[in-house]
Amino acid sequence: MTDGPWLVVGLGNPGPQYAGNRHNVGQMVLDELARRTGATFGGRSGGLLHRRPQAAVAEARLGVLPGGAPGPRVVLAKPATFMNVSGGPVAALAKYYDVPLERIVLVHDELDIPFADVRLKRGGGEGGHNGLRDTSKALGTKDYVRVRVGIGRPPGRTDPADFVLKDFAKAELKDLPWLVDRAADAVEAVLVEGLEPAQQRFHTKA
């Protein structure tokens, strides 16, 4: 494994009013990864000529390699744009840090997975997820790794667009720290073990 960096992006919406939303669980996972590494997020333009930063960024090493060596270098990023226009910051950061496509990992909420499940895949459709759709457009491909954090389907006739912009229910909050921790473990596994071994571990029911 080369020592080039990985880019791990947590999707969500900016601002405290959105911080607890289901749509922001990807950014919750990034906060956990930063906590594990002792890194802190700062503004970074991604090499663009914008006056305002396009993402909050933390640089660290993540996980532990076999034999006890520190894990790979990683750029943790939380776009400062709204979810629907996440692609610009992702593409800009990949270019700025010279991260190849195979080392880009997006962490995001997933309606089609039961709450508290985590699934991993490379490529495929976006399932109506506007953050993924915009990222695929900006990168010119869908062939990047996704860490899909299950939030479940909305109850009854609730509009999915409204459901993702609400905070987790009280019954879910007790399991949310466990879910965030598990998703952070999944990110580490992808970086340290590779996608297929990580899939085998996280797609297997205990």
Automatic annotation (TrEMBL):
Keywords: Cytoplasm, Hydrolase, RNA-binding, tRNA-binding
Record GO cellular component, one term: cytoplasm
Protein name: Peptidyl-tRNA hydrolase
Subcellular localization: Cytoplasm
NCBIfam families listed in its UniProt record: pth
Secretion signal span: none
GO biological process: protein quality control for misfolded or incompletely synthesized proteins; rescue of stalled ribosome
EC category name: hydrolase
Function in brief: Hydrolyzes ribosome-free peptidyl-tRNAs (with 1 or more amino acids incorporated), which drop off the ribosome during protein synthesis, or as a result of ribosome stalling.
Domain of life: Bacteria
Record-annotated site: Stabilizes the basic form of H active site to accept a proton: D109
Protein family membership: Belongs to the PTH family.
Subunit field text: Monomer.
The species this protein was found in: Cellulomonas chitinilytica
Reaction equation(s) it catalyzes: an N-acyl-L-alpha-aminoacyl-tRNA + H2O = an N-acyl-L-amino acid + a tRNA + H(+)
Record-marked site positions (Discriminates between blocked and unblocked aminoacyl-tRNA): N13
Enzyme Commission designation: 3.1.1.29
